[in-house]
Structures are given as C-alpha cells and as structure tokens.
Specification:
Layout lengths: L2 H19 L20 H13 L17 H32 L7
Helix pairs in contact: 1-2, 2-3
C-alpha cells in the first residue's frame, strides 16, 4: 500500500460517482438499474443546484431562473450528505492511518 495506489483508488471512486450523477449525460439515459445510485452521489445534488443557479434546465415557467430557483431542498440534501460523509471519512481515515502506522506501511516509495 502506498499513497500512489490510494490516488488511483480515489480516481476510480470519483469517476464512478460522476458516471452516475449526471455530469457526463442525463441520469434518465443511463440503465434503469443504475439510476437509483444517482441518489447516493453528492455530485447529483451539487450539479442540480449549480444548473438551477445559472438557469439551465428550468422547465417550470412559474419559477424564476438564478438564485430564486435554488430550493432549500438541495441545500438540505447537501448538508445531510456532508453531515454523514465528513465524520465517516474522518473515521475511515483514522482507522486506515492507525493500521498503516502499526504495520509500517505508511511510507512513500519512489
């Protein structure tokens, strides 16, 4: 285990999240079994909020573009994801760091 391998794993995880979140193409065109995974990706909610803020994809003519179109739902969803994922990430990092120190794997090669 080395930091370089961790970076590789991070890229794989990041690309997987972006694949299901609608960054590359709309969620609706992905396979039906893959669509529910978009609800687990924070990028889905961030992308939706950014699109609303700049006025892209607003099909509701009663709702204005820009900041007024940004609903509190996106903010609440992003805050909840952050409230869960940040402590979880810190806990996982602490466990991995403790294991790496104990086994002597915490070193940089090359």
């Amino acid at each position: 285990m080395s930091p370089e391998r961790g970076a590789e794993a991070t890229h794989i995880f990041q690309r997987s999240l972006l694949l299901v979140s609608g960054v590359y193409y709309p969620i609706e065109v992905s396979p039906r079994w893959l669509q529910p995974l978009s609800a687990l990706s924070p990028a889905t909610y961030t992308l939706s909020a950014c699109r609303k803020l700049v006025g892209i994809g607003n099909t509701d003519t009663r709702q204005p573009d820009g900041c007024a179109a940004f609903s509190s739902d996106e903010g609440i969803e992003l805050a909840l994801i952050g409230a869960v994922m940040m402590p979880l990430g810190l806990w996982v990092f602490g466990r991995i760091e403790t294991w790496a120190k104990r086994t002597g794997k915490l070193k940089r090669t090359g």
